[in-house]
Amino acid sequence: MNLSAVNWNKKSYAEYVGYLKSLADEKYREFNNKITPDSGCAIIGIRVPELRRIAKEIARSDGRGFLDYVTYEHKEALTQEEIIITGLTVGAMKLPFGELCQRIRTYAAMVKNWACCDVPVSSFKGIKNYIEEYKIEIYRFLKSENPWEQRVGIIILLDHYLSDENSAAYALSQVNSVKSSEYYVNMAQAWLIATAFAKHRDLTKSWLEDEFDLGESVLKMTVRKLRDSYRVSDGDKTWAAGLLNK
């Protein structure tokens, strides 16, 4: 399908969905069904490089038309791949601040599982152009009652707010404010903390000792992430394990 010359409407969207289905890999679909149980949406079985390629083609042509049509006409029945492509298309476009916020918000409301979240959020490079301004959007996500929107906020912090110590300190303080019993929220919190530790050891070590306030479950997940990391020394892994005994 030539995605660079599409006028998005009912007919072209049906052709697009048919095109996506033609790219299905049954073994990969089965694998995805195993790693995203209770996914909340159908899975076609398309590998991520293909999804990135499709999103880039759409973004280079009529990205806004695609996003408007998909998100307002079909958002309740999208497959996992369609949701991922929607997020990746947002990430591939150069958008002014207001539109970037609105597009990410609309995408976040469509997220049904961790796979729909993590790959697209990593593509939101435009956030780094508005690192201070975007904090109000992160606050909205973290305070949402929707756990998948909370995960979107946490993964935004992980991907775009750990580049320096000041940003990392902000990310850790925000993650500390999210009190949740949802597994995929807690795992995202642990992932962020472990990544912050690998990038900013002293800051994160001190924070874990003095400020961590997320409970035993998140602490156990964090320690497991640290002990599994190739970027954490054996000595620090031993120290992390000791946190469980305090």
Question: How is this fold's topology laid out?
Answer:
Layout: H1 10-22, H2 26-35, H3 48-60, H4 63-73, H5 80-92, H6 97-108, H7 114-122, H8 135-142, H9 147-160, H10 165-176, H11 183-199, H12 201-210, H13 215-228, H14 234-243
Helix pairs in contact: 3-5, 5-6, 5-7, 7-9, 8-9, 9-11, 10-11, 11-12, 11-13, 13-14
Describe the structure.
With about 250 residues, the chain is an all-alpha fold. It has two domains: about 1-125, no CATH class; about 130-245, Leucine-rich Repeat Variant (Alpha Horseshoe), CATH 1.25.10.90. The chain has 14 helices and no strands. The protein has helices at about 10-20, 25-35, 50-60, 65-75, 80-90, 95-110, 115-120, 135-140, 145-160, 165-175, 185-200, 200-210, 215-230, 235-245. Helix 5 runs parallel beside helix 7 (about 115-120) and helix 13 (about 215-230) packs antiparallel against helix 14 (about 235-245). The chain starts with 9 loop residues before the first helix and ends with a helix. About 40% of the residues are buried.
Overall tally of domains: 2
- Shape descriptor: globular
Helix content: 55-70%
Mean pLDDT: 94
Order of helices and strands: HHHHHHHHHHHHHH
Low-confidence stretches: none
Gyration radius over CA: 19 Å
Q: How is the biggest beta sheet arranged?
A: none
Based on secondary structure, the structural category is: mainly alpha
Strand content: under 5%
